[in-house]
Amino acid sequence: MSIGYFPGPFRVSWQSLGLHYRELIDRFVVINTPSYINVLWSALSAFIPEQSKSRIAITGRNWRDELLVMAEAECLPERYGGKIPDEKALKDPQPVPKDLYWRPKPDYPSVAAMHRISTPAGKTRTLTYYLEAGMELHLYSHNESDFTFAIYYSEKETTPEEEYEALLPPIQKCALPAIDLYNQDITRTGYYHLRMTNDAAWLFPSTYRLIVHEKSGKEVQALNQKEKWIKQGVKSK
């Protein structure tokens, strides 16, 4: 498989595959690298487990010859030193037509109306909502940097965090220009904890925008909505 650069959801799906199903991947081969890659690899490889490190092959100036040592020429396209005609194996990407760009639906809230949740690098923020069975929620969110998002439930507000029940296990949400919508049917009365973790940044805080509506369009506010790390959204007139 030829992989140049993983953007957006495609990158996240491959990260999940590499994290949870790494045995499916025999080797990652990096080709056509800049001259400084060996210095960078020497610095970073010390933090990678030996089992994972052995599966990463960084090729040099003669990467086509190195590829042929790892794979048969009959399995590679001509562009990579193989025998498969490029037109049969590779397609040059074309720009996405602008008429296919994402556009918010008329009933979506604006980004300005969402509450801004600032989270330092490596830290977690949690919004807690008291909800009653039978409610149908619409969670609108927007993030310009990667975040990990999860939803937990507890019958009592005083329940220790380690005893929360996971309703939505932690998932990585990549940075996208679109507003994301997640629907949640409330089947049990209790406390619902929306947890956001900034585990992608090393140094700087990141902002996650969120607003929760009932099916009727009325906003549902968190019990800790007035925390200092939350900047309230602009109310629509």
Automatic annotation (TrEMBL):
Transmembrane segments: none annotated. Pfam families: CRAL_TRIO, F28H7_8_C. The gene is Acey_s0007.g3520. Signal peptide: none annotated. This is CRAL-TRIO domain-containing protein. Residues 1-88 form the CRAL-TRIO domain.
